[in-house]
Amino acid sequence: MRKFLVLLLASLTLAGCATAPAPSSTAMNSTAPTRAPQRFAWVTGLKPEKAAYYKELHANAWPAVNRQIKASHIQNFSIHLREIEGKLYLFAYLEYTGTDFAADMKKMGDDPETRRWWKETDPCQQPLPDAAAAGKIWADTTEVYYLP
To answer: For helices 2-11 and 112-121, what crossing angle results, to 10°?
Structure first.
């Protein structure tokens, strides 16, 4: 998990896209729309011999890790599992609501409990060839359709 978040920073140039700052009393009466969260999705393989352990970890995710994810302005984070032609794949999706993705991901990467979590999850994952060649676990995806 750590590598897909930390190494993602090197591959993405992100504009600050987030919810507006806390509204002032004047802004509270405004009808100006807020900007939508920025959406991210990635894919990676899952080692078959580690699949049960990976699912068990996520069925009992550590509270400190969940708190750090939320503190990093991440919402609607999910990981999905799919078998394709006998191989296991993970698909991750999240929405980022902050204003500085790189800084929030650095804070997450510096969190000792999150780093400990990644030491458990990283060995379970099997990068796709293009991600592995880039030194990443999770391969970036391209959004081709969105319906709000």
So the answer is: 100
